[in-house]
Amino acid sequence: AGTPSSWSDTSIVVAVPAGATTGDVVVIVNGKSSNGVSFTVPPGILNNPSFELGTSVPVSFTGTWSGGASAATGWYVWNNNAGTTMTELCRAASCPSGEIPPAPVDGTHTLHVTATGAWSGIYQVFPATTLASAGLWLDVISGTVVVELLGPGGPIVGFTSSSGVLSLPAVGVFNEIVIYSLGGAADFYVDAAVLH
Predict the structure, then answer these.
(1) How big is the chain by its Cα radius of gyration, in Å?
(2) 42-96, pLDDT tens digit by residue?
(3) Phi, psi (5° rounding) for residue 116?
(4) How many whole angstroms separate alpha carbon 41 and alpha carbon 150?
(5) CB of 92 within 8 A of CB of 105?
(6) Distance in angstroms (rounded) separating the CA atoms of residues 124 and 121
(7) The pTM is what?
(8) pLDDT value of position 186
(9) Which of 5, 95, 98, 136 gives the lowest tally of CB atoms within 10 Å of its CB?
(10) What kind and span of H or E run contains 192?
């Protein structure tokens, strides 16, 4: 069951509760039930895809080598050289630099990644999942950014030096996503990774 965050004559807005499964949504008012409306819960592959703040996640932090500080629940800093990756969590609609992804999701957070060395960024490991596509919002300020899916079906690699949605034809089984700088320093914002 969920509690509405807003209600009008034409819509009801309710956050999907943790553990929800695909099925009919029924509205109950004063003990009376509405007809059910079919609702599909998409697969939860990534942990915290929009980088919401966790209770123990600092606003900014620095990673060292492979692994390192947590960027937001489930995400970690990736450095496989001596370059430093500084990440900064900020509201999607008001990052300190004024830069935002092309279509930030209101109420979520954006991750600002500053990689001073090559091959540095963030990553997440998730349960092995069969995917048909992958995409995420990137706002590239400088450098070139790589998105790499790893697993039995990959690697599948995409890279960009411009802002917008980076989409990958990720057909296969994957269990890791890495977002990092290519060949040198990079400064970019990332928000709302979507894997299908």
Answers:
(1) 19
(2) 656 788 777 777 666 677 777 766 666 777 778 888 876 666 777 877 765 566 5
(3) -85, -10
(4) 25
(5) yes
(6) 11
(7) 0.72
(8) 92
(9) 98
(10) strand 186-195
